[in-house]
Automatic annotation (TrEMBL):
It comes from the Eukaryota. InterPro entries: Leu-rich_rpt, Leu-rich_rpt_typical-subtyp, LRR_dom_sf, Synaptic_Scaffolding_LAP-MAGUK. GO terms for cellular component: adherens junction; basolateral plasma membrane; postsynaptic density; postsynaptic membrane. Keywords: Leucine-rich repeat, Repeat, Signal. SUPFAM superfamilies: L domain-like. GO terms for molecular function: protein kinase binding. Residues 1-22 form the signal peptide. PANTHER family: DISCS LARGE, PROTEIN LAP4. This is Uncharacterized protein. It holds the Pfam family LRR_1. It comes from Glossina pallidipes (Tsetse fly). Transmembrane segments: none annotated. The keyword Disulfide bond does not apply. One of its GO terms (biological process) is establishment or maintenance of epithelial cell apical/basal polarity.
Length: 326
């Protein structure tokens, strides 16, 4: 149905659709919503995904029964404060938009359990987000976040937290209050350390920290008794904490080229601190440098040597060092 006819249909029939509970308007090239949509007071599910909506009207907040709202893949730059009036909302998807901020009034979504904010332009989160005590899934991947609010741990019902591809250099200590957290993904950020409080995440099963700047992991990670998947490939780790021997790990990823999910570790001693640690043939990790034209030329000219190089002897150094084969 063409957009103009669709809008006319909503305008002319909304008065007889007052009992409507589900409305699917996905992929209709919609750019705005008619005010008459506010008459659909029985509406529980509204799908506006894959349209061209640039702005949401305030009267969208006047749908008291709304439980599920899809706004993914539009052109939204902001959400109206009235979004906080949707107190029965349990699911909200505003991924793949152009959002630069979220109104603090989002704290009014007291029944929200699933929030998808992925693929936007968010640089920070409102403090009100921490008041969503029933939130179990929060997706924030592919934004511009440089930090998380210190009170994020107040979302103590959180089970899945996705922070992939942001600019985070640290996680707040309050994350340790997320005792129900089972899946934490912070791949491709700029993490330099983990808070020791992460050891309080008793239900953490999957921890993915791929492609960060971690030089060590806290020994307290060994307190995460159900942790079974640990991905720390693409970091700068010298060793792993010995406390990991207490865990029933099924997969430990230290390299993208790793052939097996499980490795054989040996106990060792950190010369600097004297503490017992774990090491293996993939530790310490080497910083990865993408192949540049000059490096490709070097490899091509020395192809015979490269053919005989093993994974243990092929090393990449940072941009200030020269490539070498040992």
């Amino acid at each position: 149905m063409a957009p103009s006819y669709l809008m006319r249909f909503i305008l002319t029939t909304s008065f007889i659709l007052t009992q409507l509970e589900s409305l699917e308007l996905r992929e209709n090239l919609l750019k705005h919503l008619p005010e008459s949509i506010s008459k659909l007071t029985k509406l529980k599910r509204l799908d506006l995904g894959d349209n061209e909506i640039e702005e949401l009207p305030p009267y969208l907040g006047y749908l008291p029964g709304l439980q599920e709202l899809w706004l993914d893949h539009n052109q939204l730059q902001k959400l109206p404060p009235e979004i906080g009036l949707l107190t029965n909302l349990t699911y909200l998807d505003v991924s793949e938009n152009r959002l630069e901020e979220i109104p603090n009034e989002i704290s009014g979504l007291i029944n929200l359990t699933d929030l998808d904010l992925a693929q936007n332009l968010l640089e920070y989160l409102p403090d009100g987000l921490a008041k969503l005590s029933r939130l179990t899934i929060l997706k924030l991947d592919q934004n511009r976040l440089q930090r998380l609010n210190t009170n994020i741990g107040d979302c103590d019902s959180m089970q899945e937290l996705i922070l992939t591809e942001n600019f985070l250099s640290e996680l707040p200590a309050s994350i340790g209050r997320m005792t129900k957290l089972s899946n934490l993904n912070v791949d491709r950020n700029a993490l330099e350390s983990l808070p020791i409080e992460i050891g309080n995440c008793a239900n953490l099963g999957v921890l993915s920290l791929r492609d960060n700047k971690l030089k060590k992991l806290p020994p307290e990670l060994g307190n995460c008794g159900v942790l079974h998947v640990l991905d720390v490939s693409g970091n700068q780790l010298q060793y792993l904490p010995y406390s990991l021997v207490n865990l029933q790990l099924k997969a430990v990823w230290l390299s993208e080229n790793q052939a097996q999910p499980l490795l054989t570790f040996q106990p060792d001693t950190d010369e600097a601190t004297g503490e017992q640690v774990l090491t293996c043939f993939l530790l310490p990790q080497q910083e990865y440098q993408p192949i540049t034209p000059d490096l490709f030329k070097y490899l091509s000219e020395n192809v015979n040597n490269v053919k005989h190089a093993t994974k243990e002897t092929l090393k990449f150094y940072d941009e200030h060092s020269k490539f070498s084969l040992k």
